[in-house]
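Translate sequence into structure tokens.
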Amino acid sequence: MTEAREQASLQQAGATVKEGIIASLKGVNEIEAEIVSLARNTVSHALGVAGDVAKGGVSVATDVIKGAVQATEEVGTGLIMSTKSVAKGIIMGVSDVGGDLVTIAGQTARGAVKGAADIGADVAMVARRTVDGVLEATKEVGGNVEAVAQTAVIGAIEAAAAVGKTAARSVADVLVGVVGGVKDVLAAALPAEHSAPASRAATMAVVVEEEEEGPKPARRKK
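Result follows.
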């Protein structure tokens, strides 16, 4: 009898934890949906009032992602979780008013990485979550996913390069594969074979690849 009660108690404990986890996950999903909606409505309203979507889009995207970073800094947690939702909301808000998603994607990624570095958050994870949010929104609104992905990745690496070599490497590592790898991103950034690097991001990405491949053999003098 005692053994049966113990078994029932253990099963009840498992059921309790299961129900608690399900409730928590539902709560997280609801919170993320609310953040997406907040960012989307804020961006579309601000751009609607401004009138000049092309001029105001970058500024609004920067301000919104900055506000998200400041909010999480004050409460002490949640940046990595909320970044994807904020980024998604920004892209959807810009899409609502016919803005340039490609440009905004790059600016959003830059702002998120810079903000993460400023408060000592995990720059690489914030970059990944931001790019995920940007791409998810772009797919939903029917935008050019490839172009948006390239710009977002380049923007993230560029912002990380301004922080330092380690940050740039970390961001490049987590974003490799998003648009076919770092080399493909650089090909998009440097259309001409002999062009100078378009940005510090390109330089840092090259450094990342060279370090991964190892030192190149020295050329023999003729």
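Note: Residues 188-222 have pLDDT under 50 and may be disordered.
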